[in-house]
Design brief:
This protein is of the alpha+beta class. It has one domain. The chain has seven helices and four strands. The chain has helices spanning about 5-15, 50-70, 100-105, 105-110, 115, 125, 130-145; strands at about 30, 45, 85-90, 95. Strands 2-1-4-3 form a four-stranded mixed beta sheet. The longest helix is centred in the middle third of the chain and has 21 residues, at about 50-70. GO terms for molecular function: ligase activity.
Length: about 150
């Protein structure tokens, strides 16, 4: 099966048909590919189960980082997290890159405090669609908090 085989169904979903033509769970949006595998961007359906799995992956990543980077649990980690501009389909469902979809979801916004307190940058810096401004703010936040302990 190829992307072209399911594209008509994806187009129907993007145009507002019920999600049960492809998924048992409601479609909450679409993920956009980078377009590098053929020069044309593709869309893939997104549901809450996918976002739950992404949160699990980020939780697992935190455990691995704390195991292999001695002392990281005593301070903050400077993470360069970025989003891109979202678009919408003709049925008003959001369409965005994988990271943008996750960082703007309730699964990221409602993360546990131990996860939230380990970043130097507030969410607004992550959500900034201008990469240069976002990078500047990430660096500035890291500089301001370089001597702060996690409490």
């Amino acid at each position: 099966m190829t992307y072209e085989d399911v594209k008509p169904y994806l187009d129907r979903l993007a145009n507002g048909e019920p999600s049960d033509i492809l998924s048992a769970l409601p479609i909450s949006g679409f993920l956009q590919s980078s377009g590098t595998s053929g020069g044309k961007q593709k869309i893939l359906p997104l549901n809450d189960k996918y976002l739950e799995n992404m949160r699990f992956i980020y939780d697992l990543r935190s455990l691995i980082i704390s195991k292999h980077f001695v002392g990281v649990e005593q301070g903050k980690g400077m993470m360069f997290l970025f989003t891109r501009q979202e678009s919408t389909t003709s049925s008003c469902l959001p369409s965005a890159t994988v990271t943008t979809s996750f960082f703007k979801s309730k699964y990221f916004r409602d993360r546990p405090s131990y996860w939230y307190n380990s970043y130097t940058s507030p969410d607004e810096v992550i959500w900034c669609p201008d990469r240069k401004q976002s990078l500047y703010c990430h660096l500035l936040c890291g500089l301001v908090q370089r001597d702060h302990d996690v409490s």
